[in-house]
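Data deposition worksheet. Section B asks for the primary sequence of the deposited chain exactly as it was used as input, without tags or linkers unless they were present during the calculation. Section C holds the resulting structure in token form. Section D is free text for depositor observations; keep each observation to a single sentence. Incomplete worksheets are returned to the depositor.
Section A, Depositor: J.P.
Section B:
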Amino acid sequence: MFDANDLSVLDSKYFSVIFTDAFDVTIMSRNTGHYWFIHNPEYPTPGTCIIFHKHKASHPYHQHGRANSLKQAVRSIQSHDRWQMQGRPARR
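Section C:
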């Protein structure tokens, strides 16, 4: 369950906050325009977050990973943004 302290890690200069409630957060990165949905089902243990990601609003979400807290999920998203902005490596 997300509380006000958890939600305070959502920097409005970095993210456009689309939706928040006790179990879900939907944000858009202002750097990449990518959308992120973070769900905290509190199962099997409190604090487990599932991170979903999509590149455009019209695309479906895919699972990006998991985190132990919203703060850790935000760090993962910011790391992904850095990787994305530096350019993806060429496929062989």
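Section D:
Strands lie at 15-20, 24-29, 35-39, 49-54, 62-67.
The mean pLDDT is 92.
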